[in-house]
Amino acid sequence: MSTQPTALSAPGTRTPRGATALLALVVLDLTFLVNALDRQVLPVLLPDIRTEYQLSAGQSGLLSTVFTLGLGFAGLASGFLTDRFRRKTVIAVGIAVFSVATLLQPLSTGFTTLVTYRILSGVGEGIQYAALFAAVGSFFVRRKGFALGSINVAYGVGAFLSPVVGTALADGFGSWHAPFFLYAGLGALLLVVMLVVVPRWFTEVRTEPAAAIAVRTKLPVNRNLLACAVLAFVPGFCGYSYLGLYPTYLRTELHFGTGELGVVTGIFAVGSLLSMVSGPLADRYNPRWLLVASVVGSMVAGALMFNLHSGPVVQALLSVVEGISLSGFLLLVTSMLIQRSVPVSAVGRATGIFTLSVYLPAAVSGYVFASLVQRLGWGTAALIQLTALPVVALIAIAVLDHRVLQPRKDLP
């Protein structure tokens, strides 16, 4: 009975296989970048979409985040599939579903069909998400922070480019449809590249015989797994309510122009670039205070950006702080800790739990935030949803088992 190759043979070596592994990582990062392009473009185009389909505030809020419903449930299912089938196949299926759904969105005939296609795009992303993080995290065992950080950086680059490119394409072609056609084409192209370039020995790393993995049906449940699931709630429910409706706030309340809107919204993604710092830091040092600082940073930024009627510079700075806190640190470090909390054979399922914990709450976050705004106004709604609710994350950090927070001893 054979065992899959270990993760220690290629990363960090100056061998042909090591170079191929780095190339495979870059290609997988690019597939995730295209996910970010689709995720972030709809909120900046939402005022135009709302006008075309005559949407209510609640419908607009739901539309801005509903794709995460599909992402969360599909991510959970993908986590279980990832531990039983080839990860490369699961990733490919996810990219294909995402690309088709992105293509269909501008062809929607109304609110119902558009919501359906948004959920379907989330399903594709969710299938890809858990398999991608499990594959990369299992291969780069000693450099998990660096490898997972690179995925987050790719997301950040895509999230920054998406509003800028999306608004430019929409203005240039006179229609909000154009960006979706481009992003669907990029997804299809990268699917072909991924199938050709990424080798199976990269995606299928295991530390147990395949037969043993296949019969393992129980996910080890411990307090760290549960605490990480609660931690993931903050970037999901709180973060996506901000991402979904912040562009609407900037346009309708602060009267930002299209160019200012794209830059201020997209600059949130600059925070993701710090994943290349936060990942290695969490590998080498106790990440508890990184988590605390990121939660508190998001609480402060969330309160200020919707209560200070400030210009583009101040809003951009607050958006960067929110991005650093949620995407650059909290999301990445939590995903690392949840993988540390289970055996390698259960990494896929643990990643699925993480995906569900982030994206299922995110699915209703836009609707809840929009409803609070209608009743209480932007400022009070932000204080409730972006500042008060994240306190639960601080409680989760306090109950984490210190053993999962210990720095790695095998790093040079």
From TrEMBL:
One Gene Ontology term, aspect cellular component: plasma membrane
TM stretches of this protein: 60-82, 89-107, 119-141, 153-174, 180-203, 224-243, 263-282, 289-308, 314-338, 350-370, 376-400
Keyword ATP-binding: no
GO terms assigned for molecular function: transmembrane transporter activity
Gene3D superfamilies, alphabetized: MFS general substrate transporter like domains
Subcellular location: Cell membrane
Alphabetical list of InterPro entries matching this protein: MFS, MFS_dom, MFS_Efflux_Transporters, MFS_trans_sf
Keywords from the UniProt entry: Cell membrane, Membrane, Transmembrane, Transmembrane helix
Domain Major facilitator superfamily (MFS) profile: 24-405
Entry membrane topology: Multi-pass membrane protein
Pfam family, one: MFS_1
Protein name: Sugar phosphate permease
